[in-house]
Structures are given as C-alpha cells and as structure tokens.
Amino acid sequence: AQSVTQLGSHVSVSEGALVLLRCNYSSSVPPYLFWYVQYPNQGLQLLLKYTSAATLVKGINGFEAEFKKSETSFHLTKPSAHMSDAAEYFCAVKRNTGFQKLVFGTGTRLLVSP
Amino acid sequence: GAGVSQSPSNKVTEKGKDVELRCDPISGHTALYWYRQSLGQGLEFLIYFQGNSAPDKSGLPSDRFSAERTGGSVSTLTIQRTQQEDSAVYLCASSLESEAPLHFGNGTRLTVT
Q1: Pick from B41, B98, B102: which is nearest to A98 by CB?
Q2: Chain A residue with Cα closest to B38
Q3: HSE-up of A25 (CA within 13 Å, CB side)?
Q4: Which residue has the higher pLDDT, A23 or B100?
Q5: How would you list the strands of the sheet with B75-79, edge to edge?
Q6: Rounded-to-integer distance, Cα A98 and Cα A96, Å
Q7: Per residue, what are the HEC states of chain A?
Q8: Could you tell me which residues of chain B have a Cβ less than 8 Å from any Cβ in chain A?
Q9: Which residues contact B79 (CB under 8 A, 6 or more apart)?
Q10: Which residues fall within 8 angstroms of residue A109, CB to CB, at 6 or more apart?
Q11: CB pairs under 8 A between A and B
Q12: Residues of A in contact with B48 (CB under 8 A)
C-alpha cells in the first residue's frame, strides 16, 4: 500500500524567504509522486510530478521537488516565496503501474506574510 | 469542455434526504475519480472508474454511497439518507492514462443540516 506523510499542517514564511514543505512516502513498489496546490474555493492543480525520470523535478510557479529514495522523501521547495503562493499544498503517491488511485497526504497550508 | 465540471457547486440538504452529485470529466479521459475533502482530513479516496467499470470502490464509506458512470463519460455520486457527517467538499478528477496527472473539478460543497 502507498501512503504519504506531510509534516506540519501549517508553514509560515515571509515574502522572499525559502519555502520548504515536507513529504515522506511509503510504497512497496517504485512510486509516482505528485504535488498539488489548492487555492481557496478551487479544485487541485498539479504543481509537478515525479515518474522515475530525473530525480529533481521542476514545476510551475518556480517550485521544484527532489525525489530521494534513500530518505523516502519528496520535499517541495521554492527559493523565494511570493504572496500569491499562499495556498494549501498536497503531496500524493500512486503505484507506477496501471490505473491506481492517488493517495494524498493531509495537506500543508502555506502562509506568506509581507 | 476545457476542464472537469462538477454540479451543483453548492448543495444544502436536510438530514435523511438523498443527494446526487454530478461530474463531467475532460473529453477523452478514461479514468474518473471521486474524492471527499473534509475540514482537517485531507483528501479521502472514494471510488475510481476505468471506463464504465469501477475497479476500486474501497473508499466508499458505507452502503449509503454509490456511484455510476455511463458512456465512459459523466459520473454521478449518490448519497442516500444523508447524515451530518457527510458534509464535505466532494471532488471529481479525471485522467487520460496511468502516468497522466489528475485534473480536478472545483468540487461540490455539501452541507447536511
């Protein structure tokens, strides 16, 4: 079975500061990993995905994540936070074969202060 | 349409009533997923469809919940005899293939009074 753990339900940063949102996964088979963002009253939007190609994955809005098998982690980073980054971020995992359900973490709300 | 469409966007119902939630996936997407998002609970998987069949119904919370998909397109999630704990945002998503990301609708916010 696959699962993800997101450490910290809330993360607060100042505008311009580094953003680091943590995600650790558990999977019995090589996983596919995803980060999604949810703005208020909207659905989820894909930020980036890892599907066994490059371990450093670049996504939209300046975000990137690195797949580290040894640490079973897929942390999301952005060098400089912008006010518009304030949202809820979800890490998700699925098996790398066939159609399988995507299992989400509980989410991390990013707060950005001026 | 350009994206996944869900209707209604908001639904308020009385405890004990039945409700139907609709999802129109992106045209051509063969996989369709239903998730439930409750405050502080993250996203809870309910069911997914591959075409018209549902290989994984493991997330349906009780037999009051059912879902169908017709013509490999539109899906309806039905909740019978609604309870207050059913109050949540119900999200639908579709995807083209196994490696493709999910595209989400904006959800239906269900409130059971």
Answers
A1: B98
A2: A106
A3: 31
A4: A23
A5: B5-7, B19-24, B75-79, B65-69
A6: 7
A7: CCEEEEECCEEEEECCCCEEEEEEEECCCCEEEEEEEECCCCCEEEEEEECCCCCEEECHHHCEEEEECCCCEEEEEECCCCHHHCEEEEEEEEECCCCCCCEECCCEEEEEEC
A8: 4, 31, 33, 35, 40-43, 45, 48, 50, 55-56, 59, 91, 93, 98-99, 101-107
A9: B18, B19, B21, B64, B65, B86, B110
A10: A9, A10, A11, A87, A88, A89
A11: 54
A12: 99, 101
Residue A98: its pLDDT value, please?
A: 66
The residue that leads in pLDDT, B108 or A42, is B108
Q: What's the average model confidence in pLDDT over B66-94?
A: 95
pLDDT band at A91 (very low <50, low <70, confident <90, very high): very high
- Tell me how close the Cα of B4 comes to any Cα of chain A, in angstroms: 10
Quick one: closest CA in A to B98, which residue? A99
